[in-house]
Design brief:
Pfam family, one: DnaJ
Radius of gyration: 34 Å
Distance between the termini: 85 Å
Protein name: DnaJ-like protein
Keywords: DNA replication
Structural class: mainly alpha
Organism: Muricomes intestini
């Protein structure tokens, strides 16, 4: 389809002419009367509304008619990432006739196909012929960057920046190069220019949003570790960019998850990050149904972090529960990592979880909680109602404690498992005491050692009652 021909325009018309032609034609071809014609006009208009498509369409009109189909074929192969085919066709055409548009496409395909040596040679040649051509300079910078000649790439991009080049593709690459050069001040300055430029755009095409997402990812990853106060100060502006445009959540999914992670880390050193972190977190949770499979692990971590912050400030939650919650949240995220990560390095965690290597810490924590069960029960009931992530993490243990009819029975149950896991001798006892954790702590580390000889179950009870030990003071010993 030739969009200019569909809109009854001369080849190479600008965007204003495209808009005027569109509104003129839709009054002539109404959708209810000629739906197919209206659809064709609408598609041509929407195609040319994207700047990159308009430029491409204008370039095609400058190509001899017999080479327009091969040109479109190259564009299609590049779009499908079939770079070898695109390169081969460009080279065949250029063997027949020198057409600059094919030379430019060939240089871009070389970069995309990791043929950086050929790309450098091609773009250096074009820059020598036209040293003021901004497109050639930008592509040469990309070729240098792909080749690993970082200083040369940085110099070219700095020159283009000083010349006032403004487009999201340029900013995206320049941001990466500036971050690699460890130029924090420059990264922050570029970021402000990007924000201003993005707001100035009349429309935000999908490719614009994709470039912006990549730029914001670099900002959150790089700046957070070097100038978190700057990132915190501009986090609302970043949030607005990612949420104000009605595009698919998937475009910004990785970036907004990354910002949540960065803000949670900032929160550990600066409480001012709290409100912003919750703003991002609540937005993520509200889009839970749109999150991809790869986002399940970050989502679990974000939910856990939000709950941890809330639970720490909840006056109705006992301190013992707050302390124990760190273990439960940690186990939940570890299990989520194993379930949602294909990385071979995760196999060690999977193996450890499978062998129950962390169960000792689990039962240690359970004993600690049950030791003061009566005092923490109201908090556990609140956990069940108000903290779904912690409720999920504790699982059946929460229900056991909430429905417990005998504190001693539950302590003995967990104690038996704990002793087995930790290698205590069968006669060792961990004491349930109304005094609280002090008596418990005296036994939780290391092996209990009896100072006197063991009393047999049929021996006389040392209390002097005259009864056998098993019928007297020893009747409750497991």
């Amino acid at each position: 389809m030739d969009p200019f021909k569909v809109l009854h325009l001369e080849a190479g018309a600008d965007k204003q002419a495209v808009k005027r032609a569109y509104f003129r034609l839709i009054r002539q071809y109404r959708p209810e009367e000629e739906p197919e014609k209206f659809k064709e006009i609408r598609e041509a208009y929407e195609y040319l509304q994207e700047d990159s498509n308009l430029v491409t369409a204008q370039k095609i009109t400058q190509i001899p008619t017999e080479f327009r189909h091969p040109y479109n074929q190259v564009l299609e192969w590049i779009k499908k990432e079939e770079y070898d085919k695109a390169i081969a066709l460009c080279e065949r055409v250029l063997d027949i006739v020198e057409i600059m548009e094919f030379r430019i496409l060939l240089g871009k395909a070389y970069i995309l196909n990791d043929n950086s040596g050929k790309a450098v040679k091609l773009w250096e040649g074009l820059c020598q012929k036209d040293s003021e051509n901004i497109e050639y300079m930008e592509q040469l910078g990309k070729a240098y960057w792909a080749r690993g000649w970082n200083n040369k790439a940085f110099q070219i991009y700095c020159t283009l920046y000083e010349k006032g080049v403004k487009n999201l593709s340029f900013y995206d690459n320049f941001m990466d190069i500036a971050a690699f050069q460890e130029s924090t001040e420059l990264v922050c300055r570029i970021s402000l220019d990007v924000f201003e430029y993005y707001r100035s755009l009349e429309n935000h095409a999908r490719e614009d949003a994709e470039s912006m997402s990549s730029i914001l990812w670099t900002i959150s990853e790089y700046v957070q570790a070097r100038d978190y106060e700057w990132l915190l100060g501009h986090s609302d502006e970043i949030f607005d960019i990612m949420t104000e445009t009605p595009l698919e959540f998937s475009i910004y999914e990785d970036t907004i998850m990354g910002m949540c992670t960065a803000l949670s880390e900032i929160l550990e050193v600066d409480e001012a990050a709290g409100p912003v972190f919750f703003k991002y977190g609540e937005y993520v949770v509200s889009n839970e149904n749109n999150i991809s499979e790869r986002g399940e692990l970050p989502l679990t971590i974000i939910k856990a972090n939000m709950e941890k912050i809330k639970i720490e400030k909840d006056p109705l939650i006992h301190e013992i529960i707050k302390e124990a919650s760190n273990l439960w949240y940690g186990l939940l995220t570890e299990k989520a990592a194993v379930r949602n990560t294909a990385d071979p390095e995760i196999s060690l965690i999977k193996e450890l979880l499978g062998t129950g290597i962390g169960d000792g810490a689990v039962y240690d924590t359970l004993l600690y909680m049950v030791n003061d069960l009566k005092n923490i029960l109201p908090g556990l009931q609140r956990v069940k109602k108000e903290y779904p992530v912690l409720r999920q993490a504790m699982g059946e243990f929460l229900e056991e404690m909430l429905n417990c009819s005998s504190q001693q029975y539950l302590f003995n149950k967990y104690e038996k498992k704990y002793k087995k896991l930790m290698g205590y001798p069968s006669g060792a006892r961990l004491m349930l005491s109304s005094a609280g954790e002090d008596d418990y702590d005296a036994y939780e580390n290391g092996t209990y050692r009896r100072e006197e000889a063991k009393i047999g179950r049929n021996d006389p009870c040392p209390c002097g009652s005259g009864k056998k030990y098993k019928k007297c003071c020893g009747r409750n010993i497991v």
